[in-house]
Amino acid sequence: MESNPLEAWRFQGVFKKYAGDEFQVIRESSLVGALRRLSLEGVDLVLLDADLPEGRGLANLVRVLLSHPKTPIVVLTGVKDETVALQALRCGAEDYVIKDEVADREALIRISRYSIERHQYYIRGHY
Question: With helix as H, strand as E and coil as C, how does the chain read?
Fold first, then answer.
């Protein structure tokens, strides 16, 4: 879920370039659309923009977690705030990524892979 079309296009390009066909990136520009899509089809990971039109910050994260607790979520934000990052992780996000700090674009692929694996590990009760 990314509200900025340019950012969404950039992230889609990163996934295509560095992960090939491993990931199919589907963009939703609103939380309502994303929640509807999550209900209709299997999604391995949500990259959640912290600033969507329907809400800001952790409110969006909580809405997705409450409706789809078995789907790992990585919060993407333009705001560097360690307090909010820790709150997001405590709420259940797998990671908190500041968009401009993902200088190594391959890191976003790695974060995505690790988030999916880590979430599955905990879902299976191996903690």
Answer: CCCCHHHHHHHHHHHHHHHCCCCCCCCCCCHHHHHHHHHHCCCCCEEEECEECCEECHHHHHHHHHHCCCCCEEEEECCCCHHHHHHHHHHCCCEEEEHHHCCCHHHHHHHHHHHHHHHHHHHCCCC
Give the CA dihedral 62, 66, 70, 74, nearest 10 degrees.
Answer: -10
Give 58-110 pLDDT, tens digit per residue.
888 999 999 988 899 999 888 888 888 899 999 999 999 887 776 566 788 88
Tell which phi-psi region holds residue 109, choosing left (phi > 0), alpha (psi between -120 and 50) or beta. alpha
C-alpha distance across the termini of the chain, in Å: 29
Q: What's the pTM?
A: 0.82
